[in-house]
Amino acid sequence: MQASITEHSASAEEIRARQHAMWAAVAPAWGEHADYVDARAAAVTQRMLELGAPQPGERVLELACGAGGLGLAAAERVAPDGAVVLSDVVAEMTETAAARAEALGLGNVSTRRLDLEQIEQPDESYDLVLCREGLMFALDPVQAGREIRRVLRPRGRFVIAVWGPRERNPWLGIVLDAASGQLGRPVPPPGAPGPFALEDGDRLVALLADAGFSDIVVDELSVPTHARSFEEWWRRTCALAGPLATILASLPEQAASALIARARAAATAYEAADGLQFPGVTLIASGRRT
Question: What is the pLDDT of residue 7?
Fold first, then answer.
């Protein structure tokens, strides 16, 4: 039995190491496209801040911050005496977030390298925890939820956004379907962390309840995606999506071209007069520590 546990733990650590390397590899693209990411997620950011309601003087933690757009917006709301910590699992992301905070003159922002499943921060040290499009990549999202609860003060709040059902997010679902068809296997594998791992709202509520939260509510928000051309959409998606970038880099040129052709054919269903117009749905969960 001990050997099995050790093997399982080693496998989990290997998966984590691959994930960290994957996100580190695409971090420069997140810096390059930071303004686009903020614009694409503007409605999500606004709703998350409405639900989280950061107040002057409060301490806020953003997990899986990427380029940090959400936390930077929160920093203005908790100023002048409040503070925001922007964190990500790879230092390359937090470096971009720190540079953006400095450029905006936000002196109440700092950065940390933190893992969702092991948040190396003191107990009860934050009033609000935010996580936009990150929890679905955790190997153990319940453990991540427990860690979020641990670092929240009593009655502290959380707001978490994850992508809704894959079929209602064709801007990314098409890409994964094309990869699955080309490789002859599901991408990502069943049960593995990925962009749609928490697409079920009921499962998300149950997960957060298991983590010890109360007053849990999951809202659905429409988040359409527009691109002026197939090439623009494909280039941005490849640049920002860590798993896709890894897959494409591993394929021979002919196979990569075939994958792109699959995606191009599927994307024609979303052609509009000004390019491509994809529907999209985000789930936003909010609640409190009991």
Answer: 35
